[in-house]
Design brief:
Elements: E1 18-23, H1 27-38, E2 42-48, H2 52-61, E3 66-68, H3 71-74, E4 82-85, H4 92-101, E5 105-108, H5 118-128, E6 133-135, H6 143-156, E7 159-167, H7 189-193, H8 203-207, H9 218-235, E8 242-248, E9 261-268, E10 272-279, E11 286-293, E12 296-301, E13 304-309, E14 317-320, H10 325-338, H11 346-365, E15 369-372, E16 377-378
Parallel strand pairs: 1-2, 1-4, 2-3, 4-5, 5-6, 7-10
Antiparallel strand pairs: 7-11, 8-9, 8-15, 9-10, 11-12, 12-13, 13-14, 15-16
Length: 381
């Protein structure tokens, strides 16, 4: 069904230029937009943001791009072929679904969703409207990760534990600059809030949305989503049956609502556990994944991949490894033209976000979450 859903009528020629728009022109949005613009036969045709100063930044690099403050008006542009969604998380579902229903292919930054119930709605919109939808989990387009899976997973034996961690991520500690302490006249605060309950302008809630659970999922959906996606890729299972979590705001008493320290544990039906731990405390830095099997362990951290056999005396195999936003964007553009499913298709993005959401729900409800992997529903107590 997924393949037939992409039987799009347009036939792309080798010289056709793809016209793209960007919704969300913050730092990540501008970076990925520049990556798109650097690809051959791509034109940045429109930019949309609630803060017009950020639209201006995109237009400085793409002078012909039209500027918008309302993504719905931008989506009325018939010449747009695809859209990059790089808004804060609480706008991902609405903007992505609106773009899909407007007939645009979508590259949406991770996590795909703010809440666990939004994922199936986005998947449905992509399939019903026969659209390409790539989620920005760029490790999916890294040949190094695929080579590590191919070369080392057969040697690991049965994986019983997948450990992941991400400590000291600076994106969760950003401070609003002095000029943002008073709301700029060209920032539409009401539209930024969207569905979030009204509150007066708060520069930190705008500048560092990741620290507030109304706007994002904290370190769990921002960081664990990347690594649990790799656990899914390597082990071959992507729907947990249970989740527990513990953590809190232990150090940064700055008004944030997302925990600065968190530990998540997901259990999978195949008989293994995937964990995530993260702290923003200054004493810890670094990120990685370690798959522990009956015949060895596979460690990915610090820009390298290490396979350590369980047998005594056997030396480890070490090689460099990295991800690539450029390769991920190129894969998306190839799929816009070919109508093939992309490397991080919307269903893959939904499953990885879903696994992260279960951890946050367990943390907030302070209980073990049981999950039906077939119906993908949280089971009652």
């Amino acid at each position: 069904m997924a393949m037939t859903a992409l039987s799009y009528g347009r036939v792309w020629g080798a010289n056709d230029t793809i016209a793209m728009g960007v919704i969300g022109c913050g730092g990540r949005g501008r970076h990925v937009t520049a990556t798109f613009a650097a690809q051959p036969k791509v034109r940045v045709a429109a930019a949309c943001d609630v803060f017009s100063a950020r639209v201006d930044m995109v237009q400085q690099k793409a002078p012909g791009a039209r500027g918008f403050s309302d993504h719905r008006r931008m989506l009325e542009m018939k010449e747009l072929d695809c859209v990059l969604v790089a808004t804060p998380d609480h706008w991902h579902a609405e903007t992505t679904i609106d773009a899909l229903e407007a007939g645009k292919d979508v590259y949406v930054e991770k996590p795909l969703t703010l809440t666990i119930d939004e994922g199936p709605k986005i998947v449905r919109a992509a399939r019903v409207n026969q659209r390409i939808c790539q989620v920005g989990m760029q490790r999916r387009s890294s040949e190094g990760y695929h080579a590590a899976k191919r070369d080392f997973m057969p040697k690991l034996g049965k994986v019983t534990l997948a450990r992941t961690w991400w400590h000291g991520n600076g994106a969760h500690l950003m401070k609003a600059p002095p000029e943002m302490r008073t709301k700029p006249d060209n920032l539409d605060w009401g539209r930024y809030l969207g569905r979030v309950k009204w509150r007066e302008y708060d520069p930190q809630m705008y500048w560092n949305f990741r620290a507030y659970l109304e706007f994002g999922g904290g370190q769990v959906t921002d960081l664990f989503t990347h690594w649990v996606d790799m656990v899914h890729l390597f082990v071959g299972e992507d729907v947990p049956v249970a989740a527990v979590a513990a953590g809190g705001i232990y150090h940064y008493k700055d008004g944030r609502t997302a925990p600065d320290t968190i530990c998540v544990l997901n259990e999978y039906p195949g008989g293994f556990t995937a964990t995530f731990e993260a702290t923003l405390a200054p004493g810890m830095r670094g990120t990685g994944m370690e798959l522990c099997g009956t015949e060895g362990r596979l460690l990915i951290a610090g820009g390298q991949c290490e396979f350590h056999p369980a047998a005594k005396g056997e030396p480890p195999v070490i090689r460099p490894i990295s991800d690539s936003t450029e390769a991920h964007v190129a894969n998306f553009l190839d799929c816009v033209r070919s109508r093939k499913l992309p490397n991080a298709d919307v269903l893959i993005g939904h499953r990885s976000a879903q696994a992260s959401h279960l951890g946050n729900i367990a943390y907030l409800e302070q209980r073990r979450i049981k999950f039906d992997p077939v119906r993908e529903e949280i089971l009652p107590l």
